[in-house]
Amino acid sequence: MSAFCSRCGELNDRPRQRYCKACHSVYQAAWRKKATSERRFGARLAAGLAKRFGDLRPQQCIVCGSAKAEMHHPDHELEYFVVWLCRDHHMAWHKHWKETVASKFAEWVGVARACANVQKAERATKSRKAAA
After folding, report:
1. Are residues 52 and 71 in the same domain?
2. What is the pLDDT of residues 18-69, one digit of tens each?
3. Angstrom distances, CA of residue 13 to CA of 17, 85, 126
4. Same domain membership, residue 70 and residue 51
5. In Å, how far are 24, 47, 56, 127 from 124, measured between CA atoms?
């Protein structure tokens, strides 16, 4: 590697690396933002399609019972695990989640991960049976 940063052209303060510390930090921040946004988009798309095709059925808000509830993903890596919240409680969740219900959602995410693994196994079994 060059002794100079590939991005800014200044002397590289990270030996054998492409970018200097400052440029590497900027690069990593942009990469994280893009990766997070792609994960969110994929989860929302998958859940929306599952809802559209009837695999995911709308439910009432888990806080107040309102019939006008929307999907909330506590963990975007679990595409089909959504919590149904009315608009007011959904916005309240995003505003105050750390102080109010983070521990309960952590518990739900643990259960969801276990369920997601079971669902993946079931889908794989169905695919193998259909192919045979």
Report:
1. no
2. 889 999 989 888 887 787 788 888 898 999 999 999 999 999 999 999 999 9
3. 9, 49, 54
4. no
5. 40, 19, 19, 5
